[in-house]
Amino acid sequence: MNRPAGSLRRHLCSTLLILLCLLGVFPLDVILPSFPALSDEFRVDTKQIAYSVSFFAVGVAMAQIVIGPLSDGIGRKRLLLAGLSVSIVGALGCVVSTHYETFMAFRLVQALGCGSLVLGQALVQDLYSGTQRNAMRILLTSTSGLFISLSPLAGAFLQQSFGWKASFTVFVIIAAIVSLLSCVLLHDAPASHDRAPSMSSYRVMLRDTDYLAHSMLSSLAFACHFSFIVIAPLLLMGRLELTAYQFSLVFIGYGLAYIVGGMAATYLNSRVSPQAQIKAGLLLISTAGITLLMWEWVAGLSVLGVLLPMIVCTTGTTLVRPAATTQALARYPRQAGAAASLNTTLLFAGAGLTSTLVAGLESALTAGLGVLFVVASLCGGWLLACTKDDGMQRC
């Protein structure tokens, strides 16, 4: 696959990757303010709508586990275009659904299509090299944080102005634009011409202790973020009775922590080892968990008592995830698609299952979230002990 040549092509490639990030927040974050409306529309409990987000994450994980190794053999372009087409069908199906079961079925179709978004990680590997590759990953991390911070506000605007169907409609429009850019910018040639599409590469990666340890570290950090995403409407709009607009404003502070964390990661990247960055992030996550538990015990549930620990946790998550993911993917540069898919599958599968467990606690949501943060940081510390700074296996 050709690397960007020329200023216009570089900007268009950057736009394509940024829009892939934007597509990822619509099914997960932009839809959050629509939880009450979806609950009313399909006459189910709000918790059932929250489960749809976890269900979506598991569907993405199922799809990308196949897409990654296929893309290493047959190329990224055709799989990305196929996935985008499937996700558009799923989103349109959600719009016309009249029953909860039908809506969930089309959410799964959308999730299977969105599994192709994992190819954004592989495209960074294909299109850029050296410092450009690192710079693009930093840009995408910061951009993702910005999208997360603004997505509930955008979701609230879409919900109040056009109803819950609007977020799916905008998703379709952006997916169509990404498809057009992919047709123009990407080529059919596979990233690894000497490698046939095969699932066998996963066997090697699953025996690689260092790859698995760093992938699981990234998954644990993401599970903390994703669990809050799922239960945030239940806590802030359900228990504390915030309006969708108030919820979106509160969420801006949470999302901006991703930008702060990205800036911290950029600063630390050239000064300390990835292992040190991960340790610092795990410490912040555990601190957030203890703070969340203590605050509710002493002062009860409040917006500030939820938001401040989450900002601390998110900063820690943003330190852990980029460092751990980079360490994992760097071990398989010629199998970028498979490595990215397995890494992200572990990410979403763990996040989906964990968030479902936390959401099911009902009367103990904040306590469950706090315990998750503490346990995740402890498990992360153990995983970190299974690696060395030079990437050699220890466990």
Please describe the topology of this protein.
Blueprint: H1 7-30, H2 35-42, H3 46-74, H4 76-96, H5 100-114, H6 119-127, H7 130-162, H8 165-185, H9 201-206, H10 209-239, H11 244-269, H12 274-299, H13 303-329, H14 336-359, H15 365-384
Helix pairs in contact: 1-6, 1-7, 1-8, 2-3, 3-4, 3-5, 3-10, 3-14, 4-5, 4-8, 6-14, 7-11, 10-13, 10-14, 10-15, 11-13, 12-13, 12-15
Write up this protein.
The protein is mainly α and 395 residues long. The chain is 81% helix and 0% strand. The protein is built from 15 helices and no strands. It has helices at 7-30, 35-42, 46-74, 76-96, 100-114, 119-127, 130-162, 165-185, 201-206, 209-239, 244-269, 274-299, 303-329, 336-359, 365-384. Helix 3 (46-74) runs antiparallel to helix 4 (76-96), helix 4 runs antiparallel to helix 8 and helix 10 (209-239) runs parallel beside helix 14 (336-359). It is globular, with a radius of gyration of 20 Å. The chain starts with 6 loop residues before the first helix and ends in an 11-residue tail after the last helix. Residues 190-197 and 390-395 have low confidence and may be disordered.
